[in-house]
Fold this protein.
Amino acid sequence: MQSLRKLYKIGHGPSSSHTMGPGFAAEFVKNKHQNATHYVVTLYNSLALTGKGHLTDAIIEQTLKPKPVTFKFNVDVKQHPNYFVFEVFEHDTLLDTISVRSIGGGDILFDNEENHIEMVYPHQSFDEIKAYCLANNIHLYQYVKAFEGASIDVFLSDIWQQLQSTVEKGLKTEGVLPGDLKVQRKAKTLMDRAKDTETEAQKQNRLVSAYAFAASEENGSGGIIVTAPTCGASGVLPAVLYYMKHHQGISDQKIIESLAVAGIIGNVIKTNATISGAVGGCQAEVGSACSMTAAAHAYLSELEIEQIEYAAEIAMEHHLGLTCDPIDGYVQIPCIERNAVAGIRAINASGLSGFLSDTRKISFDMIVHTMYQTGLDMHPKYKETAEAGMAYFYKQKK
């Protein structure tokens, strides 16, 4: 598996596959052909259908400026769901054609370029990781440090600082999110109303929801976020970890350790399935984020590795089949609310795992493979195309 440095990325929202990935690709193309005079970029499939709302064309144009860019939009089911092609021109001469796949979490693969994928971990499945940890009498955090080195704490500390910054900025910001939907920001309202709750459980749910809305609204506005594991699911993990620090007294060091544990879960999903909504539906994004968060919460609750696995499995199992149908292509409805619901579900999954792990029948590896196959079987219209589900009926209503 790859380093956690490839999983957690800091950058602009609203989409890791539709904004970050194309931005990285455009930067590569610009640096490779500094004598280019203009570009033609063809966006395919999900990028063509929801790229406007996800700011795909905007980030490519911004990265390549001041050189002009002409965009084409195409649907070709033979191509990858997030496929795009740069045609690079010097006046009337075609210098190069560069084909790219944006595979989720900000990662890209060039069809005609050598893709260097450095593997840090020797294990591919959670069963292999668990066996190694049990044989060496170490926990998942120690496993991460064994292969990443001590410097991983510095990296994860930076990630944690950004996660907190994103939540805190979102809590202070009011108004309407950019785009045609005119979605009202709700994080501050949720935060204010948390004071009026009657029970601790109600207060926890309201606060976690407020923190998830805060991060997700920052993402939906194109703000700076952390892929955890994607932009569209970037509100789940920070919501729960922010709550654990500020309301449960968990130290920053323990939070950093829990980010390592969550990262292993995310890496297993990314390696053996997908974290891209255009490939696997929202189960691959919010479902993966919920699994990562449930594992982090279980670690902070001092549960054993079997219980951490079970927490992650429960979280994913109950997101199976979740479609990705962003209305008008914006990462706002239903994405923001889903992050809040997943944060609460992650805590519940962790709680269940604490006393039911000895009765479980399904491994985390099995649920990851199940999610991937479910995503492959899902109709393409339900995978980040805005052609079905709520996106379709919303259009019909207008």
